[in-house]
Amino acid sequence: MSRPAVFFDRDGVLVEEVFYPETGEKEAPLRPEDVRLVPGAALAASRLAAAGYALVVVSNQGAYAKGKTTLRSLWLAHERFLALIGAEGVSLDRTFYAYGHPDGMVPHFSGPSLDRKPGPYQLFIAAAELDLDLGQSWMIGDRQSDVDCALAAGVRPILIAPSPVRHNPHPTACRAADVGEAAAIILDCKL
Ligand SMILES: [Mg+2]
After folding, report:
1. Which residues of the chain have pLDDT under 70?
2. 191 CA to middle of ligand 1, Å?
3. pLDDT tens digits for range 170-179
């Protein structure tokens, strides 16, 4: 029987974004040693897994395409992420990365890509591979592209937005302060 999933954006949700002086931006970790879990992320994932949700990460990783790091370094950062969250007792069902970027400079990784959010492509692949019920599934992300991806796949979105927003610019999504609160919303809705 199909089961529900929680789709997670990775950076800014489960993994801390990192400020790099050389790029002047807070962004996804470019190197494995920069990977840090968001406090409470592993506990939130554990609670959702215990409630029967498949745990699937869907992440855009455009830094290689933009010439900021190597593909190998991004892969080692992924392995570091799995090791850190695994040490907290969390086993993810699948992780999907989209390495292309529309404004990239690296040949073969630049231009439009099917698998990049806000496209729902990876969610449909995950549903096929893991036999997921998208209509009973959720997505937790920190960007409008995560919300748009979820809506395109028929998945309920939760937007992580830490500071209170006076005029909610994302009326199509529930909001949560962090991934722990997002997990609590999902578990409350299941009752
Ligand atoms: Mg993010």
Report:
1. 163-172, 191
2. 28
3. 566 789 999 9
C-alpha to C-alpha distance for 183 and 190, rounded to whole angstroms:
11
Residue 13 C-alpha to ligand 1 middle, in angstroms? 6
**Domain containing 78 — which CATH number?**
3.40.50.1000
- Residues 62 and 131: their CA atoms lie apart, in Å, by 28
* Encoded amino acid at 10, one letter: R
Beta strands in 61-190 (DSSP E): 94-98, 138-141, 156-160, 174-176
Contact 155, 134 (CB under 8 A): yes
| pTM metric for this prediction | 0.95
Find the 1 Cα to ligand 1 centroid distance in Å.
31
| Residue carrying structure tokens 């807070």 | 26
Q: What residues are annotated to the active site?
A: 9, 11
Counted domains in the chain: 1
CB 88 within 8 A of CB 42: yes
Say how many Å lie between the CA of residue 8 and the centre of ligand 1.
Answer: 9
Nearest to 146 by CA among 120, 166, 108, 167: 120
Residue 163: domain span: 5-190
- Per-residue tokens: 173: 């999504």
Cβ–Cβ < 8 Å for 15, 38: yes
pLDDT in tens, 101-124: 999 999 999 999 999 999 999 999
